[in-house]
Design brief:
The structure holds two protein chains of two kinds. Chain A is built from eleven helices and 18 strands. By secondary structure, chain A is α+β, with helices and mostly antiparallel strands. In chain A, the strands form three sheets. In chain A, strands 5, 6, 7, 8, 9, 10, 11, 12, 13, 14, 15, 16, 17 and 18 form a 14-stranded mixed β-sheet that branches. Chain A has a two-stranded antiparallel sheet with strand order 1-2. In chain A, strand 12 and strand 13 form a beta hairpin. The relative contact order of chain A is 0.10. Chain B is mostly helical. Chain B is 52% helix and 2% strand. Chain B contains ten helices and two strands, in the order ααααααββαααα. A two-stranded antiparallel sheet of chain B has the order 1-2. In chain B, helix 3 packs antiparallel against helix 4 and helix 9 packs across helix 10. The radius of gyration of chain B is 28 Å and the shape is elongated. The chains are: A alpha+beta, B mainly alpha. Chains A and B meet through helix 2, strand 7 and helix 11 of A and helix 6 and helix 8 of B.
Chain lengths: 591, 345
């Protein structure tokens, strides 16, 4: 284990060295007036906040922030170890999201915040989407946010001083003055070439799913981190709750991300090139069928969720080809995933936070197309230390001790590798349950109301289980696999594409005690489970979704055409009656 | 009077521009926030201000000789209410509820228009004009309506009849009736008589007054009272237990219930319904401490049927936490939100 870790470290160091070397060769530094990179200008250090502000900020900090960021601001509060990415360690003054040049302190002025350029204030205001840092707007007043930052910047940042003119400089990206370049096809194309040329894809992957260097990256404190997935812009840390805004990408790319291997590209790209790259990265973010940005739920900063997965009818065989028109036309649903923390082993750090689902059906079967981003293709290295059907396995859980050996954070990329997997769960007798009642969320209610679980694993296996209750082991259904089929299972550049076919189950010879049967036009409760093998996910350590509904779209009934026509005709008659009556009345009056 | 009316008109114009901006996504929809917990009051106030400023606007316009006919005033006001409900309120309210409010406001508009004979005449005059079709313009309008109405109504009914796949509505009881007693870790707790053993003073005596005095200030941006820092090294008794409860909360609960206990944790967005918001005055502030103890111990699975146990992913925490830890977490939740639990008397 140790050896492989040090090996990985070596590879990382070599890769980092290589990147620095090559980027130096490619980029002829683009330097504007005053010897600054293009788009930047010199700034002044902000004055020190008043003692009262610092004192008031201390109260805010010890009520709201201390729980994750710790008493000394070292990012080691009680909640820290079960979070990934970890809370910021303030002590060194290293902050990721800035308008300042690489290595410099972020902008913060307790007295006179410059709108759009008060980095720390904006981080506290909008939070850091994709991490546990919430938006404090509406929770803390503007004054309180400035107070707490006064405390953090003066008392908890220990190695540097925000007001020290000797050692600190400020080179500010003039983002408000730079006009965004229109994201036309030409700009996006140039951007796509530049990300290859500037070696962005070495970490972020050829399709930008953050799968390029998924294992070896560490932050300044030695904790593993991973490159951003460009397809999930709502998880961009500095997105300021405005994920489709290209300016945020431009800023991150221009200033780099301090404390991480993400460098600043200000010195070896022109402003124009940076806009092209930003436009390209922005173009990758998931969009709807018409190419519009997904609606984002302001309460969660994630795409809005539609809990119905509609399945279209297909004549004949259901195609296994993604490019097929039937799949292209099938509505795609965003399924948010959370960590399973009910059963042991609990999954506090779930690396799969969403999957995309489409479905098609014909007269015999139903096919789910499941797609999800997973930076690593994981196939089991060994046998599970417990039966895969076992519930509440008494595995010793790691103590939430921050940063120490054996902690979750220290282990993050050293888990035993299991199979990546995905599963779909349906209650068997959903029709017999009284109207809103569904079986117990995970794994069925009891023998009377069981669930049927179909699970695909990265080793190519597809298995079926019957769950009969919260605390009971699954039963593996030996014969059912024969009626299941994996139409497609492919991992490509950080994304899984899996198509699972199952029978509709409304045949006479079907076993109603174990099989879910699907009926057209009915809402069939559906739950999705996902496992990331490199996260040590196995058994109950997985990501789970809420209850969704699979809905087999019915063909449009004939009445739908007839009744509206009848109604329209009725309206015409009514109009005639009203008009004649009115006309008669008027005549009567005038006479 | 005139000055007042002009101010009203100005407010009205700004308000309208904001709303239109929000509808067309020019102005971010969270520019003026609806504050959680105060939302109904804020909305009623906003609407009242709008009504006042519309009166001002209409006064100004008629003073300038550009008065809007009664008919269009009524229609515009009704349209305004509908748009306000659709675009201003977040999270969005379902269409059925909006339709209800729409009908109520339509009736209100009719009552307003028919409050005196003069107004009612003015209001129905344009309709009568079109029906009588005395002028060429009206004739044209009449034929347009005669053709459009059947098409529109037919279209709407077709739209209503086409099979749709919208999520079925589920009405859930948020606070189902608790049992009389609950058994946790082999010990039975009677919900009416049990007490949180950690509401103690630094001497270790049960002391509600002392804990009251250390509960944080109420209101938005709740913060601890000065000198009530649970992280103080000298903190003893109640405050020490608050810190211990907080540590447990942030190791187990905040993933769903959020850093600010508002139900917006890291995993919250994946669940339906999203986890409880403790800062909402309708949750823990309305409940006894023992109710929370029962809910935390038994989780979603322990809910009675009307509480939709199948919709809650809340773990039965008795499987992961000791009784003492559960009481401490509850202590922390009340301290952090600044609420005081309901008592039985």
């Amino acid at each position: 284990m140790r050896k492989s870790a040090s090996q990985k470290l070596g590879v990382a160091a070599a890769a980092a060295f290589g990147i620095i070397l090559t980027s130096g060769q490619i980029g002829i530094p683009v330097v504007g007036a005053e010897g600054l990179p293009e788009g930047f200008k010199k700034g002044d250090l902000a004055p020190e906040p008043s003692a009262e502000m610092i004192e008031a900020g201390k109260r805010v900090y010890f009520t709201k922030c201390v729980w994750c960021h710790g008493v000394d601001g070292a990012g080691d509060g009680p909640g820290a170890d079960r979070l990934w990415p970890r809370p910021r360690n303030f002590n060194q003054g290293t902050f990721k999201i800035r308008h300042t040049a690489s290595g410099e302190l972020p902008l913060f002025d307790a007295k006179k915040p410059i709108a759009g350029q008060n980095d720390l204030f904006e981080t506290v205001t909008h939070g850091l989407p994709g991490s546990a840092m919430p938006s404090w707007e509406g929770i803390l007043t503007e004054e309180q946010r400035l107070q707490v930052l006064s405390f953090v910047t003066t008392q908890l940042v220990k190695d540097r001083k925000f007001t020290d003119k000797q050692s600190e400089t400020q080179t500010i990206l003039q983002l408000t003055e730079l006009k965004a370049k229109p994201a036309n096809a030409e700009s996006v194309k140039r951007g796509s070439e530049l990300v290859v040329e500037r070696k962005c894809i070495e970490c972020h992957g050829t399709e930008g799913r953050g799968d390029g260097n998924a294992f070896n990256l560490k932050d300044d404190w030695g904790f593993s981190i991973q490159p951003a997935d460009w397809h999930k812009c709502w998880n961009f840390r500095g997105s300021r709750q405005d994920p489709y805004n290209v300016k945020n990408i431009f800023r991150t790319f221009s200033t780099g991300v301090n404390g991480t291997p993400m460098p600043s590209f200000a010195d070896n790209t022109t402003v124009d090139e940076r806009w092209d790259i930003a436009n390209f990265v922005n173009s990758l973010c998931e969009r709807d069928a018409e190419g519009n940005p997904l609606p984002i739920d302001p309460l969660t900063d994630k795409p809005k969720i539609n809990f119905v997965v509609p399945a279209n009818l297909v004549e004949g065989e259901i195609p296994a080809d993604l490019e097929n028109e039937a799949w292209q036309k099938a509505p795609r649903r965003y399924v948010a995933m959370g960590g399973q923390i009910t059963h042991k082993p609990r999954n506090f750090v779930n690396r799969i936070d969403d999957i995309w689902v489409r479905a098609l059906y014909n007269d015999k079967s139903l096919v789910y197309l499941l797609e999800w981003d997973d930076r690593t293709k994981s196939v089991a290295e060994g046998k599970l230390p417990w039966a895969p059907t076992q519930v509440n396995i008494d595995v010793k859980e790691q103590d939430p001790k921050t940063g120490e050996e054996g902690s979750i954070a220290a282990n993050q990329n050293n888990y035993k590798v299991y199979n990546d997997a995905i599963a779909i769960e349906h209650p068997v007798k959903w029709k017999e349950l009284p109207a809103p009642i569904k079986p117990r969320y995970l794994f069925g209610t009891n023998d009377q109301f069981p669930v049927d679980i179909v699970k695909w694993e990265a080793d190519g296996s597809i298995r079926a289980f019957k769950g009969t209750g919260w605390d009971k082991d699954f039963e593996e259904r030996d014969t059912y696999e024969e009626s299941l089929k994996v139409l497609k299972a492919e991992w490509k550049n950080g994304r899984w594409y899996v198509m699972i076919q199952r029978p509709l189950g409304n045949k006479k010879d079907q076993d109603y005690d174990e099989d879910t049967f699907f009926e057209v036009g009915q809402y069939v409760p559906t739950v999705f489970f996902a496992w990331d093998g490199h996260n040590g996910d196995a058994g109950r350590k997985m990501a789970v979704s809420a209850f969704f509904y699979t809905f087999l779209n019915p063909p449009i009934p004939r009445e739908t055409y007839i009744y509206p026509a009848v109604i329209a005709f009725g309206i015409v008659l009514l109009e005639g009656w009203v008009m004649t009556r009115r006309a008669n009345k008027r005549k009567g009056k005038t006479l | 009077m005139k000055a007042l009316m002009s101010v009203g008109a100005l407010v009205g114009v700004i308000g309208l521009l904001l709303l239109v901006g929000m509808i067309f996504d020019v102005v971010p929809s969270n520019t003026v926030r609806l504050v959680e917990g105060y939302m109904p009051m804020q909305m009623i106030t906003e609407l009242a201000i709008f009504v006042g400023s519309f009166a001002g606007l209409s006064y100004m316009l008629s003073a300038m000789g550009m008065g809007i006919p009664r008919f269009w005033q009524g229609i515009a006001f009704w349209a305004f209410i509908l748009l306000y409900l659709k675009f201003r309120v977040y999270p969005p309210i379902p269409f059925s509820v909006r339709a209800m409010y729409g009908t109520v406001s339509l009736v209100a508009v009719f009552m307003w228009m028919s409050s005196n004979e003069e107004d009612w005449k003015k209001f129905k005059q344009p309709i009568m004009n079109v029906m009588d079709a005395q002028t060429g313009m009206n004739k044209l309008l009449r034929y347009a309506y005669l053709i459009l109405l059947p098409i529109l109504i037919g279209g709407f009914s077709y739209n209503a009849m086409v099979p749709k796949s919208e999520e079925p509505i589920e009405l859930r009881t948020v606070h189902p009736a608790p049992p009389a007693s609950t058994k946790v870790h082999g010990k039975t707790y009677v919900l009416q008589t049990s007490q949180n053993p950690y509401r103690v003073n630094p001497e270790g005596k049960y002391d509600q007054e002392y804990t009251n005095a250390n509960i944080v200030e109420q209101g938005m941006g709740r913060l601890m009272k000065p000198n009530a820092n649970p992280w103080d090294q000298n903190a003893q008794g109640y405050l020490k237990y608050v810190r211990e409860g907080g540590e447990i909360f942030f190791q187990n609960c905040h993933f769903c219930h959020g850093d600010n206990l508002n139900g917006r944790g890291l995993h919250a967005f994946a669940f339906n319904p999203i986890p409880a918001n403790f800062t909402d005055p309708g949750t823990i502030a309305q409940l006894q401490e023992t109710f929370i103890f029962w809910r935390v111990s038994k989780g979603g699975i322990g809910l009675p049927n009307e509480g939709f146990p199948w919709a809650s992913v809340m773990p039965p925490w008795e499987q992961h936490l000791t009784v003492d830890e559960i009481w401490k977490v509850i202590l922390f939740e009340y301290w952090h939100t600044g609420y005081y639990p309901r008592t039985w008397d």
